[in-house]
């Protein structure tokens, strides 16, 4: 154990990678814009400067802790520097906070208040740049960018895509796709992770709130909602509900009050996916063709695979994602029900920005109509609830609607990495015996590592499984699969680290504690679920006998 | 070209090369440095070549004893005396002709080469004296040219010429008589300090690389000389590229590297082409590549062209640029000696530093330390520019005073004006003024004065210079060249520039001066890289030394040197004006009016201060007020 002195207090440290971590551990939340523990140290914002006993000023994010160090974090000199840096940032930043999407969430705004910036002595002389709204998932407004590079490093280091980078230099520097392309012309998969780390309103979610309000208000429209698993453990964030707590019942109650006609659970769609995907896996294991089977629930991953590894496209499961299966089913049901003259609109509430692009894919249209009409992210729904004045913290929970209001615990864990695999394994083992379930959970599919591997016996056959989260890791694995270096039968990929709980549409900030709470929240839902196996969901069984009969392929699969 | 298989062959090649030069009846060295080339030395070279070709059997009067050899016309590197270019040196006498024009060639050939006459109007003249020989000219006489010794004296495009001057003997010495650690020790003992600006001890840097666990290592030469007005490194690369290459090879041997990169700015096409030629020739004769001179040591050298970013002179930005990434400095640690190019331990020194290495090896550390101050020994090349009579490239021992440089070598202030200040170290440096004229030019003394030697740019300014404008100029440069990564440098320099622009436009306030101070402090203490940290130095130093001038600009709305256009007020002196109306006819905005044969007047509201009237007036009746 080593010690350093921070503001005259002795602080112990062990293997912290920089002085900043030691300072934060000691209870001082030194401000930063560009430091993220999961990304490389960039050292550009200079907000975390500290002073040592010899009067040297340095950035604590990029200094290795040494035994006996004596540092100060709040001397008049440092106060001056921090305020000056913030003033400089604010001077080149639009200050229309009241009309900004990130009002109340913006880190720049928060620090300006925290450090007491009362005036900005410089005019904003930066030329206004056009806002890039070409992406279906996110919006890029360079005018609000403070060039911390968090998005650049996230896209490159976590997702391995590198759509965004810096262009130009000095005060003309910008974050932009290469060659001044628009976002829609790039390899962006829409995961929205750049938006999650952006400290300002420079990268925001593409909002679809207004058209949904119009649909809700239209008496001739039947607005049906489906709620994705990871939404329920994050929707409470902005209402003071403890992090990771399941707020599904409260959300249902709120949506009903807001005027949505029928409210269902995407976990039900997930149950359908488990049925189809396990069937497909068995078929492929039998035929030995197109192995490994890649999961298809995550649209960010599907797009990534198509962009980067088109030769491996055939490995992607033909199953639609839970959202799309459910959407197709809901629309089919509406078409069958001739008595109801209203137009059915399917809205899904998702933790994910890439889902906004998924609904627009041509294979997700039936008879010229989208199977899912709108995707709202958790963040957008939070705003809608806030707009109505409903306090989610105090509203009484209500139950989902029928006939699709029952789902299994297997569906709930789709929202974390390894969840899809675990659900499929349950189906393949076909046992709700506690020991079997526990055995599956211990195969190695759970956990937050980028790549997890497991081997399970399905019947006589050893099935080799890889579970990946984060597209950079996925890309590396694909390279190994392509060269024949790695062999698997089943590969689950989630574009976002830890799965949908950290999706690009989830409320921010998402710190380490929030991530953990959301993950535990979903496993808790599974623990509490009476039905653990998708095939034991009684509605699913009925459906295969009824509405789905003979239409499995049409409604649940892509060509 | 003969393959130099071992040390014996190298010695023989050297003797032969020396002999060949001795045997030439006459060598005509035409400066092909960038300055002289721009002055037309390329054409002069062509003309001289043709003349020699057309007269193959010409008798050379002054060297009958070696009359059997050829007359050689060579393109040399920069001679340094750029003010007097294009330059031509004629050997063996050592005659230097200055400001040579293509039409002089015929006369030079017929009279000087053939007859041995001196053409007096081409000689350099100073204080009523004429100088025939280059070495006698005060500009050269007061210098100690060690690193630049060969520049202007050898043909930079032929390796044999370098070998003839003792080139590659230092490499031979280390390869066959010294262990790598002995080489590091020798450089360490010599106290050689990096010439790129920081003044870090070179030997210590090498020793740090040598002791890394990782065995793949690189030697990188920083030839990204970006300071405005600096061209020391360019001259070495253009005039004596092998010296620097030899230095790199010695470094590589010392630290166990097998691969090296030279990072040169793309704005130096001639340097790039000479380096390419040098590398190709060294490879061809086996002095670069595998198993050099059968010693078991291998070294490959690559050239990397920079794309015009000043910041790429910073170590980590430079290595990032070679790697193909955006040239931006990164946080340290890890330092370049631990994880530099491609994440491997890297020796990164600048051109002049490497060019110092061969002579330290040949002559020894003790000899080297005897030149200049012990802690900061050796010589330093300076690019002497601005309001000084003899601009050009000079080399003096460290510890020489500014007075010696400006008055003895530089010949004093242009047009016999009055010295005001010297800007040293380029956009990262500070100003020195009259009381500093006698301080010693070395790393430590300058640091104490709040200035730095930098890479060696010396811009001399006379009393006609506005120091606020100087600060604005350098801030404009720094702002344009900031990489944009860290906030203080990106945003802070922008705001400092805006304020300085405001001040020179006559719109500054006293509060602006305080904000400049505040910004300068934050930038200096919190910027990420060395360039950012020193970005505010020109402003800080002028603000400290010439605060009165700033105050005059913001309070009195006056620029005493009449540099800042905004403060100029043109007036017509009624006593001198003859009423000819020439000024009125030349005024582009119709601001001047009057009756013929009566004094004219200028409407200052309309006047755009272009000065067209002043230059048009035949009677000197128009001048700037104050």
TrEMBL record, chain A:
4Fe-4S ferredoxin-type domain residues: 136-166, 179-208
Cofactor(s) of this protein: [4Fe-4S] cluster
SUPFAM superfamilies membership: 2Fe-2S ferredoxin-like (SSF54292), 4Fe-4S ferredoxins (SSF54862), Fe-only hydrogenase (SSF53920)
Keywords from the UniProt entry: 4Fe-4S, Iron, Iron-sulfur, Metal-binding
PROSITE patterns: 4FE4S_FER_1, 4FE4S_FER_2, 4FE4S_HC3, COMPLEX1_75K_1
UniProt keyword annotation of Ubl conjugation present: no
Pfam family, one: Fe_hyd_SSU
Domain of life: Bacteria
Ranges of residues in domain 4Fe-4S His(Cys)3-ligated-type: 77-116
NCBIfam families on file: FeFe_hydrog_A
PANTHER family, per the entry: NITRATE, FORMATE, IRON DEHYDROGENASE
Name of this chain's protein: [FeFe] hydrogenase, group A
Organism this protein belongs to: Bariatricus massiliensis
Organism taxonomic ancestry: Bacteria, Bacillati, Bacillota, Clostridia, Lachnospirales
TrEMBL record, chain B:
InterPro entries: 4Fe4S_Fe-S-bd, NADH-UbQ_OxRdtase_51kDa_CS, Nuo51_FMN-bd, Nuo51_FMN-bd_sf, Nuop51_4Fe4S-bd, Nuop51_4Fe4S-bd_sf, Soluble_ligand-bd, Thioredoxin-like_sf
Pfam families membership: 2Fe-2S_thioredx, Complex1_51K, Fer4_7, NADH_4Fe-4S, SLBB
PANTHER family reported for this sequence: NADH-QUINONE OXIDOREDUCTASE SUBUNIT F
Family (UniProt): Belongs to the complex I 51 kDa subunit family.
UniProt domain 4Fe-4S ferredoxin-type: residue ranges: 568-597, 598-626
Protein name as annotated: NADH-quinone oxidoreductase subunit NuoF
Keywords attached to this entry: 4Fe-4S, Iron, Iron-sulfur, Metal-binding
């Amino acid at each position: 154990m080593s010690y350093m002195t921070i503001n005259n207090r002795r602080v112990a440290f062990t293997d912290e990678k920089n002085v900043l971590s030691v300072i934060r551990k000691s209870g001082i939340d030194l401000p930063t814009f560009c430091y993220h523990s999961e990304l490389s140290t960039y050292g550009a914002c200079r907000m975390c400067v500290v002073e040592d006993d010899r009067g040297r000023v340095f950035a604590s994010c990029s200094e290795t802790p040494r035994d006996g160090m004596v540092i100060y974090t709040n001397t008049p000199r440092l106060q001056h520097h921090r305020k000056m840096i913030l003033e400089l940032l604010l001077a080149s930043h639009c200050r229309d906070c009241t009309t900004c999407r990130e009002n109340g969430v913006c880190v720049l705004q928060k620090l300006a208040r925290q450090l007491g910036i009362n005036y900005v002595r410089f005019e904003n002389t930066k030329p206004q740049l056009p806002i890039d709204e070409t992406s279906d998932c996110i919006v890029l407004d360079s005018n609000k960018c403070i060039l911390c590079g968090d998005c650049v490093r996230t896209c490159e280091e976590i997702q391995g895509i590198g759509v965004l980078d810096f262009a130009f230099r000095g005060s003309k520097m910008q974050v932009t796709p290469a060659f001044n392309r628009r976002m829609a012309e790039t390899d962006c998969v829409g995961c929205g992770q750049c938006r999650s780390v952006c400290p300002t309103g420079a990268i925001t979610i593409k909002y679809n709130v207004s058209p949904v309000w119009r649909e809700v208000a239209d008496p001739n429209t039947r607005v049906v909602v489906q709620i994705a698993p990871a939404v329920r453990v994050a929707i409470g964030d902005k209402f003071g509900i403890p992090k990771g707590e399941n707020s599904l019942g409260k959300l249902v109650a709120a949506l009903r009050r807001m005027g949505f006609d029928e409210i269902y659970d995407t976990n039900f769609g997930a149950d359908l996916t488990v049925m189809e995907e396990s069937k497909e896996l068995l078929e492929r294991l039998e035929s030995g063709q197109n192995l490994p089977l890649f999961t298809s629930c995550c649209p960010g991953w599907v797009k990534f695979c198509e962009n980067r590894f088109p030769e491996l496209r055939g490995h992607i499961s033909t199953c639609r994602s839970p959202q799309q299966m459910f959407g197709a089913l809901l629309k089919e049901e509406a078409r069958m029900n001739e008595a109801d003259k209203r137009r059915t609109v399917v809205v899904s509430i998702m933790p994910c920005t890439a889902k906004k692009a998924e609904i627009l894919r041509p294979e997700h249209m039936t008879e010229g109509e989208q199977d899912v009409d709108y995707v709202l992210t958790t963040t957008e729904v939070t705003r809608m609830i806030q707009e109505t004045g409903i306090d989610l913290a105090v509203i009484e929970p209500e139950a989902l609607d029928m006939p699709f209001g029952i789902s299994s615990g297997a569906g709930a864990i789709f929202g974390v990495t390894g969840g899809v695999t675990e659900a499929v394994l349950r189906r393949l083992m076909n046992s709700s015996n506690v020991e079997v379930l526990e055995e599956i959970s211990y195969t190695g599919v759970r956990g937050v590592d980028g790549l997890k591997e497991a081997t399970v016996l399905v019947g006589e056959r050893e099935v080799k499984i890889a579970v990946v989260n984060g597209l950079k890791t996925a890309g590396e694995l694909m390279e190994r699969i392509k060269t024949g270096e790695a062999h698997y039968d089943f590969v689950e990929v989630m574009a976002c680290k830890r799965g949908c709980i950290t999706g690009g549409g989830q409320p921010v900030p998402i710190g380490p504690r929030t991530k953990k709470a959301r993950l535990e929240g979903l496993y808790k839902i599974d623990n509490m679920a009476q039905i653990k196996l998708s095939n034991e969901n009684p509605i699913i069984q009925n459906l295969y006998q009824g509405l789905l009969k003979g239409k499995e392929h049409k409604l649940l699969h892509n060509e | 070209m003969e393959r130099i298989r071992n040390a014996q062959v190298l010695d023989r090649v050297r003797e032969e090369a020396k002999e060949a030069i001795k045997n030439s009846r006459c060598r005509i060295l035409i400066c092909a440095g960038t300055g002289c080339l721009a002055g037309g030395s390329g054409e002069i070279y062509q003309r001289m070549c043709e003349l020699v070709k057309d007269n193959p059997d010409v008798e050379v009067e002054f060297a009958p004893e070696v009359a059997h050899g050829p007359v050689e016309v060579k393109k040399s590197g920069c001679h340094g005396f750029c003010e007097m270019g294009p330059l031509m040196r004629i050997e063996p006498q050592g005659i230097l002709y200055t400001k040579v024009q293509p039409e002089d060639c015929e006369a030079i050939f017929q009279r000087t080469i053939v007859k041995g006459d001196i053409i007096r109007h081409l000689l350099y003249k100073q204080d009523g004296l004429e100088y025939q020989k280059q070495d006698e000219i005060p500009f050269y006489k007061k210098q100690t040219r060690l690193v630049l010794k060969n520049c202007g004296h050898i043909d930079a495009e032929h390796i044999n010429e370098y070998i003839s001057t003792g080139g590659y003997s230092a490499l031979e010495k280390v390869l066959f008589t010294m262990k790598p650690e002995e080489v590091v020790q020798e450089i360490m003992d010599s106290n050689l300090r990096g010439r790129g600006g920081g003044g870090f001890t070179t030997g210590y840097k090498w020793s740090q690389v040598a002791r890394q666990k990782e065995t793949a290592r690189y030697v990188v030469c920083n030839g990204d000389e970006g300071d405005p007005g600096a061209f020391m490194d360019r001259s070495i690369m253009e005039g004596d590229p092998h010296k620097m290459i030899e230095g790199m090879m010695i470094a590589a041997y010392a630290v166990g590297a097998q691969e090296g990169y030279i990072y040169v700015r793309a704005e130096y096409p001639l340097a790039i082409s000479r380096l390419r030629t040098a590398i190709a020739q060294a490879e061809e004769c086996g002095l670069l590549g595998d198993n050099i001179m059968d010693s078991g040591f291998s070294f490959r050298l690559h050239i990397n062209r920079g794309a015009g970013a000043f910041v790429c002179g910073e170590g980590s930005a430079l290595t990032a640029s070679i790697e193909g990434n955006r040239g931006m400095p990164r946080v340290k640690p890890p330092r370049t000696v631990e994880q530099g190019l491609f994440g491997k331990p890297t020796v990164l020194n600048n051109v002049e530093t490497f060019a110092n290495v061969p002579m330290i090896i040949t002559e020894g550390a003790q000899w080297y330390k005897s030149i200049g101050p012990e802690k900061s020994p050796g010589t330093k090349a300076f690019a002497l520019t601005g309001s000084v009579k003899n601009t050009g490239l000079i080399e003096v021992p460290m510890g020489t005073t500014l007075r010696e440089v400006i008055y003895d070598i530089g010949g004093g202030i242009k047009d016999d004006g009055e010295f005001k200040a010297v800007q040293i170290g380029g956009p990262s440096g500070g100003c020195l003024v009259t009381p500093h004229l006698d301080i010693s030019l070395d790393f430590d003394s300058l640091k104490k004065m709040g200035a730095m030697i930098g890479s060696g740019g010396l811009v001399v300014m006379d009393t006609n210079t506005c120091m606020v404008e100087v600060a604005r100029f350098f801030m404009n440069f720094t702002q344009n060249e900031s990489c944009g990564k860290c906030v203080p440098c990106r945003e802070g320099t922008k705001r400092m520039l805006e304020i300085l622009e405001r001040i020179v436009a006559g719109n500054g306030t006293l509060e602006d001066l305080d904000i400049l101070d505040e910004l300068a402090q934050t930038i200096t203490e919190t910027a990420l890289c060395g360039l950012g940290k020193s970005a505010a130095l020109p402003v800080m130093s002028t603000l400290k030394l010439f605060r009165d001038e700033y105050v005059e600009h913001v309070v009195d709305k006056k620029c005493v040197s009449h540099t800042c256009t905004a403060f100029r007020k043109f007036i017509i002196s009624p006593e001198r004006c003859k009423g000819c109306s020439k000024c009125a006819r030349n005024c582009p905005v119709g601001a001047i009016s009057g009756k013929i044969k009566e004094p004219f007047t200028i409407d200052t509201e309309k006047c755009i201060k272009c000065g067209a009237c002043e230059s048009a007036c035949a009677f000197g009746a128009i001048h700037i007020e104050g």
